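REQUEST FORM: STRUCTURE PREDICTION
Request ID: SP-0412
Submitted by: Lab K.M.
Chain count: 1
Length (residues): 563
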Amino acid sequence: MSEELEKNRPLKPFETIGLCFSGGGYRATFFALGVLSYLDQASYKNAPLLDSVRALSTVSGGTLAGVGYAKAVQDPNYDFKTFFKHFYNTFTPENDSLLETAIAKLEDDAVWKKHAYKKRSLINAFALTYAEMPLFEGQFQEFEKDDIKQLEQVCFNATDFSFGLTYRFQNRGYFGNNPLYKSFQKEVNALRNQVKLGDVIASSSCFPVGFEPLVFPDDYFENHNASDYKNLKELDRFIDGVGIMDGGIADNQGIGSMMLINERMPDGLDLIIVNDVGSYKMKPWQQDTSTVGKTSTVKRVINKILQYFTIKPLYWITFLIGLLLILLNNMQVFGPTAYTGLYVLGSAIMGIGLLLTVFGLVASVIKASVLSRLKSLFKKNVPEPLLDDILTFQKLDIGLIQRMLTDRLTSAMKMINDVFLKQMRRLNYDLFYSKAELNNRRVTATVYKLNGQDTPYSKGANYNDQIQPKPSKGLESVCLTASETPTTLWWDKTDIAKNRMETLIACGQFTVCYELMDYILKLKADTNSGVNDFTEIDKLYKALEKDWKAFNDQPLWLVNKLK
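STATUS: Completed
RESULT:
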C-alpha cells in the first residue's frame, strides 16, 4: 500500500483490528489472554470486537496466547469461551506441568533417541513439550494464507543470530527475513508449512541466558534426508544452520512486524492495539561491595596446581633411586644373592619416577601452550605491563577476582535483560507514534497503566478524567499485583499465593476496556478524524462504561464468569 493511499484511506473504527502481544513470560501470556477475552466480551455492531481482529503479531510469552488463539479459530467448532476454558485449565498452577515436563524430557535418553534430529538442549525439550500439548499441536500449515479463517495475517516473532534481525514465522510476506528469504524463496517455501507450532513458540520465547539458540533448519525438520531439506541445507546461508532466539531481542512488542502487516493489507488496519507487559521500571545495578583481602592471592592457590605442571628434580631423583636399587641388588651388595623383592621394589620406584617425569614434560608443554594462547587473547584487551602479572597470577587477590567477575557478570545481565530491551522498546514506540498515517489508529495497553503508582517520567496516575469512576483501590491493587509478576514460564509459590494468573487476565481485561474508552473519547474530540457517524461507537462506549464500572466494583468478575 502506497504512503499516499494510506493518508487518504478513510478510517472505519473497529472494522479491522491488529493485535500485538509483547514478550514477558507468563505475565505476557495471561495479560494477552485477558485482552482476547475482553474483546470477545465487548460488542460492536452486534458482533464481538474479537471478530474484527484480522492480524496478530506476537513475541515470546505473548506467542503462547497468540498461537493458541490463532489455532483455535481454525477449528470448525471454534467457540471462544471453550478455548478460554481450555487454555485457562491447562495453565492453572495445579495443572501447569510445562517446566517439569520439559526438564523430564531433557533428562530422558529415550526422548533424544526418538528425536535424534534435534540437538539435546533445554529449549528443544520445551519445543517438544509444546508440540505435544493439544493447545499447540500441529504445523504452520494451520495458517496457510489461502485457507486461514477470520485472521488474515499472523506473525510470530523471533530473532536470527546470523544477521541480528527479526525472524518472522508468518503466513504472508517473508518467512524469516530479507537476507534469509528473498533469494531463497523456493527452498524456504517448500518447508515453511511443515514447521511445528511447538518449534515456533520455542523460537519466539527462547530468551537469552535462560536458553540456548535453536538452529534452523536442523532442529525443525525430522527427515534430514528429504530432498526439500537437503536443498535448503546446500545453500551457503543455511549450510551451518541459523541460530534462532527470542523475538524480544529485536522487538519485544512485535510493533515492527505489525506495521509491515498494515502496509501489506490492501486497506490497512483501522486499529492497532499494542498490548505490552514490558516496563519502564528497572532495578538499578548494584556493585559488589565485598571486602578485598590481602592474604589470599590467586598465585598462592593456582600455583599449588601449576607447580605440578613441570619437570621437578624429585621426579628424576625418584627414577635414579629405583635404577640404583636394581643395580646394587644385581651386584649382590645387599647379600650373598640378588633378591627378587628388591628387583620388584626398584622397578616400581623407577617406574614412578619415569611416569612423573614424562607427565611433567607433557604438562609443561601444555602449560606453555595455554599461557601463550592466553597471552594472545589478553593482549587485545589488557595493557602490556599487566600481562605478566595476569598470566603468572603474581598480585591478584582472590576477593578482587571474585568482585571483578561478579560486577562484569551482573552488569552484562542487566544490559541484556533490561537496558538493551528498554532501548529497543523506546525506539519501536518512537517509530510507532511518529507515523502520522496511524493517527487515530493506535492504542497501547500496558500492564502497569492502572496500578496507581507514580513513574519517574510522570507524576500522578495520568488517567483520563472523563472516564468515570476513577480506578478503585481494588482495581489498582489487582493491577499492581499483575504488573509485579516475574517474566518466567512457570508459577512460583508467591505467584500462587497472590493468584497472579487470574489477576493478569483481569488486568488485561479492564486495561483494554479503559484504553478503548480513552480511544473513543479522543477520536470524538478530533475534528479531523474523518469519522462523522458515531452512532455505533456511542453504543460501544456505553457498553464499555458499564463494564468499567463493574471492573471497579469486582475486578475479577469477567474471569469468574469465563473460567
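NOTES: The radius of gyration is 32 Å.
Reviewed by: T.R.
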